[in-house]
Task: structure prediction
Amino acid sequence: MGIRLKEDGSSRKKLFITSILFMGLGHIIYLKQYVKGLLYAGIEIAMLVMLPNIIHKLNDMITLGTPKPDLPVKLRDHSIFMLIDGVMMLALIFLFVAIYIISVRSAMADYKEFCTEKRLKTNRESLSRILGKAFPVFGLAPTVGLVVFFVVVPLIFSACVAFTNYSSPEHIPPNNTVDWVGMDNFVAMFGGDSTWTMALGRVALWTLVWAVLATATCYFGGMIMAVVLMDNKLKVAPIFRGIFILPYAVPSVVSMLVWQNLLNGSFGTVNRTLMQLGLIEKAIPWLSNEWLAKFTTVLINLWAGFPYFMLLVTGTMTAISADLYEAAKIDGAGRFQIFKKITLPLVLYQTMPLIIMSFTHNINNFGAIFFLTGGSPVVSDSTITNAGGTDILVTWIYKLTVNLMKYNYASVLAIMIFLILAPFAIFQFRRTKSYKEGEL
Result:
């Protein structure tokens, strides 16, 4: 005996309500798919068993603990651990809701097949379908879980910090608790505190200028060298290609640290050599003058980065038909005209996505700035904000966390970088072949 479904579709609402009331209940009562139904039901039972702990963790996330100065430090509430646990519980609830929706959709899909085939699937057929058609879902489930807890959870936690007062010296756990402050950090950074607002505007503007200059100089520098070395009359072109690729082959950390010593204002080899040759009378402040330091960072980044684009453009140019060049020469076009009308448009078309990727990379190019200048020189607001004259957003975030322990302000900057880079990442993703052809 059992409750029977009607084949005319009239039992749809009844099955839908039953499936919502308890996960897997519709599979067990109506569809007679006991294995699948028990699997879904087991997930909900496990969730109900964990419910008191989940509620406790979410409550801790809301309060972030209470100050307990009378207790030993180890026994006090640790606000950051509470926040992490709360975010993990939210992720667990999200996964549970997703599985709940899948269970309801599965029941309705099976009922639709029942109305078409006029019979219920047996448990053997249901299990075979799980192991066959639904196997990719089960195969990807562990990966999805890992992505949620090791990628999404840390990102959400970092964003949540921007809405707290997690900073030194008064709000560093476990000595002290952290509190929710809403939009106070954003207000302070975007107009509430003139010192921090001025530093943010200065660093953000330089970050964008730096990204544009670093990308443009490396790209067009590499393109010029590729065009020059592609000239068949240059017999030594392979030798120069090998020489030019050396800066790209050496780790950038090593290169930047070497250049930092070479350009040192007091004992740097560059200044000492120029003075020995009588070209200058006093040392040039390559890294201690704000504007000269910015120019130097772009110049050294060009030295380190143009080989990549040189190789990239060289590879792209080899795919251009030689007939185009021959036809242009027959029509009387000069080398510059050939470059302007043929080489440049075709190379730009092929490499534009990589230019965009390079731009986004340079916005977060920590090594090129930090290991060369360390964000120096010191400017008017550096004492309070720790933002130097050549700091970009990502190096400033490092200083805020490591030096000042202003995690709340660093999180605000991280959100800013995300809002800047997300459109570029989405644009780049939408241009991929797999997205356009619907293969994802």
In short: Residues 79-117 form the longest helix (39 residues). The chain has a mean pLDDT of 87. The chain has two domains: 12-182, 188-436.
